[in-house]
Design goal:
Layout lengths: L8 H10 L4 H14 L3 H4 E4 L1 H16 L11 E5 L26 H8 L3 E6 L33 H8 L6 E4 L6 H6 L3 E4 L20 E5 L2 H12 L15 E5 L9 H16 L3 E5 L2 H7 L3 H17 L6 H8 L6 H21 L5 E5 L8 H6 L1 H20 L3 E6 L6 E6 L4 H15 L1
Parallel strand pairs: 2-3, 2-4, 7-8, 7-9
Antiparallel strand pairs: 1-3, 4-6, 5-6, 5-10, 9-11, 10-11
Length: 441
């Protein structure tokens, strides 16, 4: 039964459907693994065993009576601790929200539960989701799969760790500037950033309404497609018959390859060669509007601080100093500058849309660096700022330009390649991702 902890969510669902796996047994395997794991308290903020067992029992009955609600009915997953869960604390990784207990589930959690998924509990994250590093000395820093001295990536740090360490079949996180894709890349997982507004953010603690998105971290592209469907309440994307042959892929040069470290660069180049051998036409291109868009990143802190300033300034001593500083930097942007930045972003989005119209997807390294050293980040301010901003640079392009994006493992440890597509084109993106997954494996 321990092998179940390392199978894809879809394969577990098929096992339940065939009668080979009982959801009750499956749930108990994961709960036992969580309970006895050395990093339990650094990965899970709050396990929910009572809810999990009740949902697994109901799924078991449906499996036996052939009334399953979805392929993933009975599959246990984890939820980032910014998605409200009825009667269970949801604190968004911050002591500022300690004791916050919502009375209803977030919309995406309610939808997933209606399709039969089992909620194992809530996972740790960067404080108020405002960091791509995953370092949280206040509430807990999850481990990295590859090296306990490395940060896990954030802000969906515990979400990634729960899957990477076999403590959930898949996880749900959020991505405002890379918070699904960075921890996915640094823990060799698949991470899907959906288009803003594609999946409901109702009942999710916000960071920046303009950029917040919901997305899964999982083992396969198929899992990502299935999880998006149950959260949206739609039919999963058809992934049959996909191939890289004949696909036209743009390889974005602008900004993405600057200051890239050796390991991510080599993994990216190796991945491109595999995609070419599989039949893809890959064309490198520049896009000056990307630099324009990235230059407007001050709107993140401005919106985040505008949303949170009253809560933060009531008890700033409760926050990790680096995160506090990032929020407070938002006070430096004036209202006219904020409006001007958004005008520049809208123009950049138009320019980008015209430039990439002939591509099936655009690719780039998910992150230009490997995971930084956790202890050094606690004591070296300059190192923290430099590595955090560099970690998020490539992924932030997708958020600022309003795209959907998918990060896949390249085969190089803690390295990912991301595919970006136009807004609301997740179905096409997932088909490209499925073809790429086959080529890269």
């Amino acid at each position: 039964m321990q092998e179940w902890r390392w199978q894809s969510a879809a394969d577990l669902g098929r096992g339940i459907g065939s009668g080979e796996i009982d959801p009750i047994d499956l749930c108990e395997v994961f709960l036992a693994a969580i309970d006895t794991h050395e990093y339990r308290d650094r990965i899970y903020a709050r396990p929910t065993p009572e809810r999990a067992r009740a949902e697994a029992q109901a799924a078991s009955i449906r499996a036996k009576t052939k009334t399953r609600k979805s392929l993933l009915d009975g599959v246990p997953i984890s939820w980032k601790d910014l998605f409200d869960s009825a009667g269970v604390g949801t604190e968004a990784g911050s002591a500022l929200l300690a004791g916050r207990v919502p009375d209803r589930d977030a919309a995406v959690l309610a939808s997933a539960s209606a399709y039969g998924l089992v909620c194992l509990g809530k996972t740790h994250l960067s404080e108020l989701a405002f960091s791509g590093i995953g370092l949280n000395p206040v509430m807990g820093t999850p481990p990295n799969k590859h090296d306990p001295a490395w940060v896990p990536g954030g802000s969906s740090s515990g979400a990634a760790a729960s899957v990477a360490f076999g403590l959930a079949a898949a996880a749900i996180g959020s991505d405002t500037g890379g918070s699904v894709r960075i921890p996915a890349a640094w823990n060799d997982l698949v991470g899907l950033k959906t288009t803003s507004g594609r999946l409901s953010s109702e009942g999710a603690v916000p960071l920046c309404h303009s950029f917040d998105t919901v997305g899964p971290l999982c083992r396969t592209v198929e899992d990502a497609a299935q999880l998006m469907a149950v959260m949206e309440g739609t039919k999963p994307t058809d992934l049959k018959g996909v191939s890289m042959r004949g696909l036209r892929i743009g390889a974005l040069n602008t900004a993405m390859l600057e200051d890239i470290r050796n390991e991510p660069r080599d993994a990216y180049q190796s991945a491109i060669e595999k995609l070419r051998k599989a039949g893809a036409v890959i064309e490198a291109f520049d896009a000056p509007e990307v630099d324009t868009a990235l230059a407007q990143s001050g709107v993140y802190a401005a919106e985040a601080y505008g949303l949170w300033k009253d809560v933060i300034e009531a008890a700033p001593e409760k926050m990790f100093a680096e995160i506090l500083g990032r929020f407070r930097s938002g006070a430096q942007m004036s209202a006219p500058d904020f409006v001007a930045s958004w005008r520049a972003i809208y123009q950049a989005r138009k320019d980008w849309s015209a430039r990439v119209a002939g591509y099936d997807a655009v690719i780039a390294p998910t992150a230009p660096i490997l995971p930084p050293d956790r202890e050094r980040m606690l004591v070296d301010h300059d190192y923290y700022v430099t590595e955090n901003l560099l970690a998020l640079r490539n992924t932030r392009v997708g958020n600022v330009l309003g795209l959907c994006a998918l990060s896949l493992p390249t085969g190089g440890a803690a390295c990912g390649i991301q595919f970006m597509a136009q807004p609301m084109r997740e179905e096409a993106l997932l088909r490209v991702g499925m073809a790429a997954e086959k080529a890269l494996s």
